[in-house]
Amino acid sequence: MARKGQASKMAATGDDAGARRHYLASMHTATTANAASPSRSTPADRFLALIYDPFLWLGERRALQARRGELLKQARGLTVEIGSGTGLNLAHYPSGLDQLVLAEPDPAMRRRLQRRAGRVVPQASVIDASAEQLPFADETVDTVVSTLVLCTVEAPELALQEIARVLAPGGQLLFIEHVRASTPARSFWQDALAGPWAAFAGGCRCNRPTVATIAECGFELDVSEAPWRGMPGIVRPLACGRARPFRAAGAV
C-alpha cells in the first residue's frame, strides 16, 4: 500500500493526470492482493453476516434505501467505503468514479461483499482493512463513505482521524449513522439496552453520539436527522450528511 513517501510524491505532481492514473492502478493491484489474503471468521460472525440483509430488509424498504441513493450520488473521484458489510450501498454509486474501494475487515461479511460486488460493480476493489487503519497515503482519497459503521468500530475517534488523514483537500465524508436520541425516554432505553444490543448486533453501540464525535474530531458538518421506520426504536434516529475536515472545508 501507499505510504507517506508515496504521498509526498503525489503531492509533488499536483493534478498530473498520468501520476494519478499510475497511483490508482498500483493501488488496485495491491488492494486486490489484500482481499485475497486468508482470514477466519467465528460462528457468530458467520451468523451475523447471514441474517444482516434480512434483518435490515424492512428498514431498507421503508427509509434507508432511498437515503443511500440520495447520499451516494454525491460520491466522486477515488471513493473508499469503510465497513462495507454485505454491500448494500453498491447499487447506489454513480458511474464515472475514478475508483471504488470497499473496505471490510470481517471475513464473513467480506465474502458476501465480494460476491455482490462481482455482480453489481465488478470494477470495484474489495480489501481487508479496518476504519482505524486505512491503507492509503495521506490526502489521496476524494470521498469516504460510512453507513452504519461508526456505531460499531472500536475506536470511532481513531477512525475519524484516519478518514481526515486520507482525505485530499476538498475531500468529503458521506455518512448515514444511527445516533443517540435527544429525547430522554428514548436515550434512557438506548443506555439500558446498549449491552444486550451490542451482543446481538455484532458490537453495535446504539447510544453513541456520533454526530458530536464527528464534529469533535475536526469536521465541518452538513447533517440532518430522520426517522428509521421499520427498525427497533433504540436505533433511531438516523443522521445523514456530509462532513469535511476543517483544513478542506474551504476547498471546492
Describe this structure in words.
This protein is α/β, with parallel strands linked by helices and 252 residues long. The protein has one domain (4-36, 46-248): Vaccinia Virus protein VP39 (Rossmann fold, 3-Layer(aba) Sandwich). Helix content is 42%, strand content 19%. It is built from 8 helices and 7 strands, in the order αααββαββαβαααββ. It is globular and about 45 Å long.
Provide tags for this entry.
alpha/beta; globular; 8 helices; single chain; disordered N terminus; 7 strands; Rossmann fold; 42% helix; seven-stranded mixed β-sheet; 252 residues
Distance between the termini: 27 Å
The helix/strand order is: HHHEEHEEHEHHHEE
Rg of Cα set: 18 Å
**What kind of oligomer do you see?**
single chain
The secondary-structure class comes to alpha/beta
What count of domains describes the coordinates?
1
The biggest sheet amounts to: 7 strands, mixed
What's this entry about, in short?
With about 250 residues, the protein is α/β, with parallel strands linked by helices.
List the helices and strands and how they pair.
Layout: H1 4-13, H2 17-35, H3 43-72, E1 78-82, E2 99-103, H4 107-120, E3 125-127, E4 141-147, H5 156-166, E5 167-178, H6 184-192, H7 194-200, H8 210-216, E6 219-226, E7 238-245
Parallel strand pairs: 1-2, 1-4, 2-3, 4-5
Antiparallel strand pairs: 5-7, 6-7
